[in-house]
Amino acid sequence: MELTRDQLTEMYRRMLRIRCFEEQVVELAARGELAGAAHTSIGEEATIVGACVALRTDDYMVGTHRSHGHPIGKGAALKRLFAELLGKRTGVNQGKGGSMHLADFSVGSVGETSIVGSGLPVAAGAALGAQVLGQDRVALCFFGDGASNEGAFHEALNLAAVWDLPAVFVCENNGYAVTMPASRSVAVKDIADRAKAYDIPGVAVDGQDPIAVYEVVQQAVERARSGNGPSLVEAKTYRYREHAEGFGGGVPYRTDDEVAAWRKRDPVLSFRAQLIEQGVLSAADADSLEASVRQEVAEALEFARQSDYPAPEEAFEGMFSTPIKTPVGAGVGGAG
Q1: Residue 328 lies in a domain
Q2: Secondary structure (H, E, C), 20-38
Q3: How many independent structural domains does the chain possess?
Q4: Once rounded to an integer, what is the mean pLDDT over residues 131-155?
């Protein structure tokens, strides 16, 4: 399906939203305003947005510890995402998920997780649920090259293949599992080749080209939605930042020349140039769009900063039961 001018513009907007949001996360982490680790998707925007635009709003999506870009790519509002990162009660999970454990059901994001590979069986479960209920929803799972070596990867793909589940598994192969090169830890050249073991389609695609990613994922989504089972898509991409903010200081694991070569293929800048060349946007239009996104990010951060932190007694909200009754005036877990 050929993308319309509005769809292409929306893709660029979402890529900008991820980039600007993550740049702000970098600044917040450097100033010590974020609690815990923060992993950014700077450099991987094309893979995320290209895949997410191929989905419907009600389709399921499962992410990773690199968790901010995925819900943004699927259309999530930025205010509640920023509030979640700052631990505020106005966050998508009332400030209890933080950077690595986001979930935004309003856009079908059923959860991000810090446990490598653990989202794969979750996505298979979501796909099974849709199948059992007779819905035509699809579950898309993002995971990294390191996760493709986890047992959960093979178990999820095998089960999805055996039961013809409506699932699409998208590997964001950014070349490294923390500092371990995929070339030294993955036995095959293309992770997409592992699909052969489960008799399902496997396709490798340029992860810096959002349209190429969209086209491949769209085919996989249509296949899944029509009842023909799962697919594996490997997007060759790259992260420009370290594994996590503040992570570093050890032995160098990649060269400056390698990073520079990938930066020449910056997905945000390349897509901007492509849209201008094709007449989808003028340079002035692109500048205006970027300015509006930066304003949106600034307003979202201000909303988060002005929001309240959850009260101690809210710690047990959302659980199946409240195991401890807290007397008035006592701390959480206290007996008074």
Answers
A1: no
A2: HHHHHHHHHHHCCCCCCCC
A3: 1
A4: 97
CATH of the domain at 91: 3.40.50.970
**What is the amino acid identity at position 301?**
L
Residue 321: inside a domain: no
Asked if 37 contacts 67 with a C-beta cutoff of 8 angstroms, the reply is: no
Nearest Cα to Cα of residue 125 among 222, 56, 60, 197: 60
- Does residue 43 belong to any structural domain of this protein? yes
In a domain, 259, yes or no: yes
| Res 336: pLDDT | 36
Q: Report the predicted TM-score, pTM, of the whole model to 2 decimal places.
A: 0.93
Encoded tokens for 291? 């300015």
Expressed in angstroms, the distance from the first to the final Cα of the chain is 64
Residue with tokens 């206290």: 334
What are the pLDDT digits (tens) for 42-96?
999 999 999 999 999 999 999 999 999 999 999 999 999 999 999 999 999 999 8
Q: What integer pLDDT is reported at residue 317 of this predicted model?
A: 82
Residue with tokens 């509002």: 77
Provide the residue range defining the domain that includes 166.
5-316
